[in-house]
Amino acid sequence: MTKQINVLTTTDLHGFIANDKPQPALALQGLKDKYPNSLLMDSGDFFVGNPLTTYFCDQYEVSPLVNYANRVGFDVMVPGNHDFDHGITYLKKQVKNLAAAYVCCNVFSEQNELIFPPYAIKEVAGIKIGVIGLLTSRMSMISDFDVTSGVIVKDALPELQKQVAALRDKVDLVLVGYHGGIERDLATHNEINYATGEDETFKLVSQTPGIDGFSCGHQHRVNQGKIKQTLVVQGGYQGNYYGHLTFSFDDQDKLVSRDEEIIKTSTLRAQSGDFYPEEDYQAWLQEKLDLSHLTEFLQEKFARRHLGIFINLKGQSRKEVIDSFTIPYGVRIYHLTQSEYQAFTKQDWAIKVEDYPAGARDFTVLTNSYEIPEYRLTDQFVDNIFDEYSYYLKQHA
Protein backbone atom coordinates (compact mmCIF):
# COMPACT_ATOMS: atom_id res chain seq x y z
CA MET A 1 0.00 0.00 0.00
CA THR A 2 1.47 3.36 -1.03
CA LYS A 3 1.51 6.47 1.12
CA GLN A 4 1.08 9.87 -0.55
CA ILE A 5 2.67 13.04 0.77
CA ASN A 6 1.08 16.30 -0.44
CA VAL A 7 3.27 19.37 -0.63
CA LEU A 8 1.27 22.56 -1.14
CA THR A 9 2.99 25.77 -2.24
CA THR A 10 2.13 29.45 -2.52
CA THR A 11 4.13 32.52 -3.48
CA ASP A 12 3.81 36.28 -3.93
CA LEU A 13 0.64 36.68 -1.86
CA HIS A 14 1.70 40.31 -1.23
CA GLY A 15 -0.72 40.70 1.66
CA PHE A 16 -3.92 40.63 -0.40
CA ILE A 17 -6.38 39.73 2.36
CA ALA A 18 -8.75 42.71 2.08
CA ASN A 19 -12.13 42.43 3.79
CA ASP A 20 -14.12 44.43 1.27
CA LYS A 21 -13.96 42.09 -1.74
CA PRO A 22 -13.29 38.42 -2.48
CA GLN A 23 -9.58 37.63 -2.29
CA PRO A 24 -8.11 34.37 -3.59
CA ALA A 25 -5.64 34.23 -0.68
CA LEU A 26 -8.50 34.09 1.84
CA ALA A 27 -9.64 30.79 0.30
CA LEU A 28 -6.35 29.24 1.41
CA GLN A 29 -7.80 29.05 4.91
CA GLY A 30 -8.64 25.38 5.24
CA LEU A 31 -6.46 24.33 2.27
CA LYS A 32 -4.61 21.74 4.33
CA ASP A 33 -7.90 20.15 5.35
CA LYS A 34 -8.43 19.23 1.69
CA TYR A 35 -5.21 17.19 1.57
CA PRO A 36 -4.21 14.52 4.08
CA ASN A 37 -0.52 14.12 4.94
CA SER A 38 0.27 17.64 3.77
CA LEU A 39 2.98 20.28 4.18
CA LEU A 40 2.26 23.89 3.22
CA MET A 41 5.08 26.26 2.23
CA ASP A 42 5.30 29.83 0.95
CA SER A 43 8.07 31.19 -1.29
CA GLY A 44 8.11 34.84 -0.30
CA ASP A 45 6.77 38.36 -0.88
CA PHE A 46 4.16 37.65 1.74
CA PHE A 47 4.20 40.69 4.07
CA VAL A 48 4.47 43.63 1.63
CA GLY A 49 2.92 44.60 -1.66
CA ASN A 50 -0.22 46.75 -1.55
CA PRO A 51 -1.60 49.74 0.42
CA LEU A 52 -3.19 47.44 2.99
CA THR A 53 0.22 46.06 3.97
CA THR A 54 1.53 49.62 4.33
CA TYR A 55 -1.37 50.30 6.69
CA PHE A 56 -0.43 47.18 8.67
CA CYS A 57 3.16 48.40 8.96
CA ASP A 58 2.06 51.90 9.95
CA GLN A 59 -0.52 50.87 12.54
CA TYR A 60 0.53 47.48 13.95
CA GLU A 61 3.64 46.20 15.68
CA VAL A 62 2.73 42.74 14.46
CA SER A 63 1.02 42.64 11.08
CA PRO A 64 -2.41 40.98 10.85
CA LEU A 65 -0.77 38.90 8.14
CA VAL A 66 0.92 36.93 10.91
CA ASN A 67 -2.51 35.93 12.25
CA TYR A 68 -3.56 35.06 8.70
CA ALA A 69 -0.46 32.90 8.13
CA ASN A 70 -0.99 31.08 11.42
CA ARG A 71 -4.66 30.48 10.65
CA VAL A 72 -3.89 29.13 7.17
CA GLY A 73 -1.34 26.83 8.78
CA PHE A 74 1.87 27.41 6.86
CA ASP A 75 4.57 25.00 7.94
CA VAL A 76 7.54 26.72 6.30
CA MET A 77 7.96 30.22 4.85
CA VAL A 78 10.74 31.90 2.89
CA PRO A 79 11.50 35.64 2.56
CA GLY A 80 11.02 37.46 -0.73
CA ASN A 81 12.74 40.67 -1.76
CA HIS A 82 9.73 42.82 -0.83
CA ASP A 83 9.54 41.30 2.64
CA PHE A 84 12.60 43.45 3.43
CA ASP A 85 10.95 46.68 2.22
CA HIS A 86 10.21 47.92 5.76
CA GLY A 87 13.65 46.93 7.02
CA ILE A 88 15.11 43.83 8.61
CA THR A 89 13.96 44.82 12.12
CA TYR A 90 10.33 44.89 11.01
CA LEU A 91 10.67 41.55 9.22
CA LYS A 92 12.28 39.87 12.23
CA LYS A 93 9.43 41.07 14.44
CA GLN A 94 6.87 39.42 12.15
CA VAL A 95 8.87 36.20 11.93
CA LYS A 96 9.12 35.98 15.72
CA ASN A 97 5.32 35.67 15.89
CA LEU A 98 4.87 33.12 13.10
CA ALA A 99 3.98 29.52 13.87
CA ALA A 100 5.75 28.53 10.64
CA ALA A 101 9.48 27.95 10.37
CA TYR A 102 11.05 30.87 8.48
CA VAL A 103 14.14 29.80 6.53
CA CYS A 104 16.70 31.19 4.13
CA CYS A 105 20.20 29.89 3.46
CA ASN A 106 21.77 32.86 1.65
CA VAL A 107 20.77 35.89 3.77
CA PHE A 108 23.52 36.92 6.19
CA SER A 109 24.27 39.71 8.62
CA GLU A 110 27.27 41.98 8.15
CA GLN A 111 29.00 39.74 10.72
CA ASN A 112 28.59 36.86 8.23
CA GLU A 113 26.01 35.06 10.35
CA LEU A 114 22.84 33.55 8.94
CA ILE A 115 19.87 35.76 9.83
CA PHE A 116 17.39 32.89 9.52
CA PRO A 117 17.91 29.11 9.76
CA PRO A 118 18.93 27.72 6.37
CA TYR A 119 16.33 24.96 6.43
CA ALA A 120 13.66 23.24 8.49
CA ILE A 121 12.94 19.54 8.87
CA LYS A 122 9.28 18.54 9.18
CA GLU A 123 7.82 15.05 9.56
CA VAL A 124 4.61 14.16 7.74
CA ALA A 125 3.15 10.66 8.14
CA GLY A 126 6.54 9.31 9.14
CA ILE A 127 8.32 10.90 6.16
CA LYS A 128 11.06 13.40 6.97
CA ILE A 129 10.96 16.47 4.75
CA GLY A 130 13.74 19.06 4.60
CA VAL A 131 12.80 22.50 3.27
CA ILE A 132 15.55 24.94 2.27
CA GLY A 133 14.83 28.65 1.85
CA LEU A 134 16.55 30.70 -0.86
CA LEU A 135 16.36 34.34 -1.97
CA THR A 136 17.24 35.78 -5.38
CA SER A 137 20.92 36.65 -5.57
CA ARG A 138 20.25 40.08 -7.04
CA MET A 139 18.74 41.94 -4.08
CA SER A 140 21.26 44.73 -4.67
CA MET A 141 19.71 45.36 -8.10
CA ILE A 142 16.06 45.37 -7.08
CA SER A 143 16.04 46.87 -3.55
CA ASP A 144 17.11 50.26 -2.26
CA PHE A 145 20.35 50.36 -0.29
CA ASP A 146 18.80 51.64 2.95
CA VAL A 147 16.28 48.80 2.91
CA THR A 148 18.96 46.11 2.79
CA SER A 149 21.48 47.88 5.02
CA GLY A 150 22.78 45.31 7.47
CA VAL A 151 21.83 42.45 5.16
CA ILE A 152 24.13 40.53 2.83
CA VAL A 153 22.52 38.28 0.21
CA LYS A 154 25.06 35.80 -1.09
CA ASP A 155 25.07 34.04 -4.44
CA ALA A 156 22.27 31.49 -4.38
CA LEU A 157 23.90 28.51 -6.12
CA PRO A 158 26.84 27.71 -3.79
CA GLU A 159 24.73 28.30 -0.67
CA LEU A 160 22.01 26.00 -2.00
CA GLN A 161 24.48 23.29 -2.96
CA LYS A 162 26.01 23.44 0.50
CA GLN A 163 22.66 22.99 2.24
CA VAL A 164 21.40 20.21 -0.05
CA ALA A 165 24.60 18.29 0.60
CA ALA A 166 24.17 18.75 4.36
CA LEU A 167 20.49 17.77 4.32
CA ARG A 168 20.18 14.99 1.75
CA ASP A 169 21.13 12.06 4.00
CA LYS A 170 19.02 13.31 6.92
CA VAL A 171 15.63 13.31 5.20
CA ASP A 172 13.42 11.42 2.77
CA LEU A 173 12.52 14.49 0.67
CA VAL A 174 14.45 17.68 -0.06
CA LEU A 175 12.37 20.70 -1.05
CA VAL A 176 13.42 24.24 -1.91
CA GLY A 177 11.40 27.43 -1.57
CA TYR A 178 13.07 30.00 -3.82
CA HIS A 179 12.08 33.60 -4.18
CA GLY A 180 13.27 34.05 -7.71
CA GLY A 181 11.88 33.20 -11.12
CA ILE A 182 12.45 30.92 -14.07
CA GLU A 183 14.93 31.87 -16.80
CA ARG A 184 14.31 28.93 -19.20
CA ASP A 185 11.21 27.32 -20.62
CA LEU A 186 10.57 24.20 -18.55
CA ALA A 187 9.62 22.12 -21.63
CA THR A 188 12.18 23.24 -24.24
CA HIS A 189 14.89 24.57 -21.90
CA ASN A 190 15.24 27.59 -24.21
CA GLU A 191 16.15 30.87 -22.54
CA ILE A 192 13.19 33.17 -21.88
CA ASN A 193 14.96 35.81 -19.74
CA TYR A 194 18.28 37.58 -19.89
CA ALA A 195 20.76 36.01 -17.49
CA THR A 196 20.72 38.80 -14.89
CA GLY A 197 21.07 36.49 -11.91
CA GLU A 198 17.67 37.58 -10.62
CA ASP A 199 15.81 34.48 -11.87
CA GLU A 200 17.82 31.25 -11.80
CA THR A 201 15.49 28.31 -11.21
CA PHE A 202 16.80 26.23 -14.11
CA LYS A 203 20.43 26.89 -13.21
CA LEU A 204 19.88 26.16 -9.52
CA VAL A 205 18.04 22.90 -10.08
CA SER A 206 20.13 21.56 -12.96
CA GLN A 207 23.40 22.20 -11.10
CA THR A 208 22.26 20.92 -7.69
CA PRO A 209 21.61 17.15 -7.55
CA GLY A 210 19.33 15.82 -4.85
CA ILE A 211 16.36 18.21 -4.93
CA ASP A 212 12.95 16.53 -5.08
CA GLY A 213 10.67 19.56 -5.29
CA PHE A 214 11.28 23.22 -6.07
CA SER A 215 8.79 26.07 -5.55
CA CYS A 216 9.67 29.44 -7.08
CA GLY A 217 7.92 32.77 -7.66
CA HIS A 218 8.90 36.44 -8.00
CA GLN A 219 7.77 36.86 -11.62
CA HIS A 220 4.04 36.50 -10.81
CA ARG A 221 3.84 33.81 -13.47
CA VAL A 222 2.28 30.35 -13.49
CA ASN A 223 4.50 27.39 -14.41
CA GLN A 224 4.90 23.71 -13.73
CA GLY A 225 7.18 20.98 -14.99
CA LYS A 226 10.25 18.89 -14.31
CA ILE A 227 13.95 19.56 -14.56
CA LYS A 228 15.41 16.07 -14.70
CA GLN A 229 13.68 14.41 -11.72
CA THR A 230 12.96 17.63 -9.79
CA LEU A 231 9.36 18.83 -9.72
CA VAL A 232 9.04 22.60 -10.28
CA VAL A 233 6.03 24.83 -9.63
CA GLN A 234 5.52 28.59 -9.82
CA GLY A 235 2.25 29.72 -8.30
CA GLY A 236 1.29 33.11 -9.75
CA TYR A 237 0.31 36.14 -7.69
CA GLN A 238 -2.02 37.14 -4.84
CA GLY A 239 -2.82 33.51 -4.12
CA ASN A 240 -4.67 32.99 -7.39
CA TYR A 241 -2.94 29.61 -7.82
CA TYR A 242 -1.22 27.12 -5.59
CA GLY A 243 1.22 24.34 -6.38
CA HIS A 244 0.58 20.72 -5.51
CA LEU A 245 3.46 18.24 -5.45
CA THR A 246 2.69 14.60 -4.73
CA PHE A 247 5.25 12.06 -3.58
CA SER A 248 4.23 8.42 -3.18
CA PHE A 249 6.13 5.99 -0.94
CA ASP A 250 5.86 2.21 -0.66
CA ASP A 251 5.61 0.16 2.56
CA GLN A 252 9.36 0.53 3.13
CA ASP A 253 9.10 4.33 2.76
CA LYS A 254 10.87 4.23 -0.59
CA LEU A 255 9.90 6.98 -3.03
CA VAL A 256 8.18 5.32 -6.00
CA SER A 257 6.48 8.18 -7.89
CA ARG A 258 6.16 11.93 -8.01
CA ASP A 259 4.01 14.46 -9.84
CA GLU A 260 3.23 18.17 -9.94
CA GLU A 261 0.26 20.37 -10.80
CA ILE A 262 -0.87 23.99 -10.52
CA ILE A 263 -4.41 24.54 -9.25
CA LYS A 264 -6.63 27.63 -9.40
CA THR A 265 -7.52 28.84 -5.92
CA SER A 266 -10.99 29.64 -7.25
CA THR A 267 -11.68 25.89 -7.05
CA LEU A 268 -11.57 26.21 -3.24
CA ARG A 269 -14.47 27.40 -1.15
CA ALA A 270 -14.47 31.20 -0.95
CA GLN A 271 -13.87 32.54 2.55
CA SER A 272 -14.05 35.96 4.18
CA GLY A 273 -11.43 37.76 6.19
CA ASP A 274 -11.63 39.40 9.61
CA PHE A 275 -7.99 40.23 10.21
CA TYR A 276 -8.32 44.00 10.65
CA PRO A 277 -11.06 46.67 11.10
CA GLU A 278 -12.13 47.82 7.65
CA GLU A 279 -13.46 51.18 8.88
CA ASP A 280 -10.09 52.05 10.41
CA TYR A 281 -8.30 51.16 7.19
CA GLN A 282 -10.64 53.31 5.08
CA ALA A 283 -10.20 56.22 7.50
CA TRP A 284 -6.41 55.82 7.25
CA LEU A 285 -6.62 55.97 3.45
CA GLN A 286 -8.48 59.29 3.65
CA GLU A 287 -5.91 60.96 5.91
CA LYS A 288 -3.61 63.51 4.28
CA LEU A 289 -0.13 62.26 3.48
CA ASP A 290 2.84 64.49 4.26
CA LEU A 291 4.12 65.34 0.77
CA SER A 292 6.78 67.82 1.86
CA HIS A 293 9.58 65.29 1.38
CA LEU A 294 8.37 63.61 -1.81
CA THR A 295 10.76 65.53 -4.07
CA GLU A 296 13.66 64.74 -1.77
CA PHE A 297 12.69 61.06 -1.74
CA LEU A 298 12.47 60.86 -5.54
CA GLN A 299 15.80 62.64 -5.96
CA GLU A 300 17.49 60.21 -3.61
CA LYS A 301 15.84 57.13 -5.05
CA PHE A 302 16.45 57.97 -8.71
CA ALA A 303 19.87 59.54 -8.31
CA ARG A 304 20.60 60.78 -11.83
CA ARG A 305 22.47 63.84 -12.97
CA HIS A 306 20.30 66.62 -14.40
CA LEU A 307 16.97 64.87 -13.87
CA GLY A 308 13.75 66.84 -13.96
CA ILE A 309 10.85 65.62 -11.82
CA PHE A 310 7.25 66.14 -12.94
CA ILE A 311 4.49 64.51 -10.89
CA ASN A 312 0.75 64.94 -11.11
CA LEU A 313 -1.25 64.06 -7.99
CA LYS A 314 -4.99 63.48 -7.70
CA GLY A 315 -4.97 64.94 -4.20
CA GLN A 316 -3.20 64.76 -0.85
CA SER A 317 -4.91 61.82 0.83
CA ARG A 318 -3.15 58.49 0.94
CA LYS A 319 -5.76 57.02 -1.42
CA GLU A 320 -5.36 59.87 -3.90
CA VAL A 321 -1.58 59.54 -3.86
CA ILE A 322 -1.89 55.78 -4.40
CA ASP A 323 -4.20 56.38 -7.36
CA SER A 324 -1.72 58.85 -8.86
CA PHE A 325 0.87 56.16 -9.59
CA THR A 326 -0.34 53.71 -12.22
CA ILE A 327 0.40 50.01 -11.80
CA PRO A 328 2.66 48.40 -12.88
CA TYR A 329 4.89 51.35 -13.79
CA GLY A 330 4.46 54.07 -11.20
CA VAL A 331 7.09 56.35 -12.72
CA ARG A 332 9.01 56.39 -15.98
CA ILE A 333 12.03 58.21 -17.36
CA TYR A 334 12.00 59.84 -20.79
CA HIS A 335 14.68 61.64 -22.80
CA LEU A 336 13.19 64.62 -24.66
CA THR A 337 14.29 67.09 -27.28
CA GLN A 338 14.07 70.77 -26.46
CA SER A 339 10.78 71.26 -28.30
CA GLU A 340 9.25 68.13 -26.75
CA TYR A 341 10.35 69.29 -23.32
CA GLN A 342 8.84 72.73 -23.77
CA ALA A 343 5.50 71.24 -24.79
CA PHE A 344 5.57 68.74 -21.91
CA THR A 345 6.26 71.32 -19.20
CA LYS A 346 3.29 73.51 -20.16
CA GLN A 347 1.05 71.21 -18.09
CA ASP A 348 0.10 72.07 -14.51
CA TRP A 349 2.20 69.90 -12.16
CA ALA A 350 1.74 69.23 -8.46
CA ILE A 351 5.50 68.69 -8.27
CA LYS A 352 7.88 70.30 -10.74
CA VAL A 353 11.65 70.26 -10.36
CA GLU A 354 13.91 71.37 -13.22
CA ASP A 355 17.56 70.45 -12.77
CA TYR A 356 19.50 71.01 -15.97
CA PRO A 357 22.77 72.75 -16.90
CA ALA A 358 22.58 76.15 -18.57
CA GLY A 359 22.04 75.88 -22.31
CA ALA A 360 20.76 72.30 -22.20
CA ARG A 361 19.37 71.05 -25.51
CA ASP A 362 18.00 67.69 -24.37
CA PHE A 363 16.22 66.81 -21.15
CA THR A 364 15.73 63.72 -18.98
CA VAL A 365 12.48 63.69 -17.01
CA LEU A 366 11.04 61.43 -14.31
CA THR A 367 7.24 61.47 -14.36
CA ASN A 368 4.08 59.55 -13.60
CA SER A 369 2.50 60.93 -16.78
CA TYR A 370 1.99 58.70 -19.79
CA GLU A 371 1.41 61.66 -22.12
CA ILE A 372 4.79 61.35 -23.82
CA PRO A 373 5.54 59.34 -26.98
CA GLU A 374 6.70 55.82 -26.14
CA TYR A 375 9.69 56.21 -28.45
CA ARG A 376 11.21 58.60 -25.88
CA LEU A 377 10.92 56.11 -23.01
CA THR A 378 14.32 55.11 -21.57
CA ASP A 379 13.39 53.39 -18.29
CA GLN A 380 10.34 52.37 -16.27
CA PHE A 381 9.97 51.20 -12.71
CA VAL A 382 7.59 48.79 -11.00
CA ASP A 383 8.57 50.25 -7.61
CA ASN A 384 5.64 50.98 -5.29
CA ILE A 385 6.21 54.73 -4.83
CA PHE A 386 3.55 55.16 -2.15
CA ASP A 387 4.78 52.28 -0.05
CA GLU A 388 8.45 53.24 -0.33
CA TYR A 389 7.73 56.90 0.41
CA SER A 390 5.67 55.93 3.47
CA TYR A 391 8.65 53.93 4.76
CA TYR A 392 10.94 56.86 3.93
CA LEU A 393 8.79 59.17 6.08
CA LYS A 394 8.96 56.75 9.03
CA GLN A 395 12.73 56.50 8.73
CA HIS A 396 13.15 60.29 8.60
CA ALA A 397 10.56 61.24 11.20
UniProtKB/TrEMBL annotation:
This is 2,' 3'-cyclic nucleotide 2'-phosphodiesterase. Residues 6-221 form the Calcineurin-like phosphoesterase domain. It comes from Lactobacillus panisapium. Pfam families: Metallophos (PF00149). Belongs to the 5'-nucleotidase family. InterPro entries: 5_nucleotidase/apyrase, Calcineurin-like_PHP, Metallo-depent_PP-like. Keywords: Hydrolase, Nucleotide-binding. The keyword Repeat does not apply.
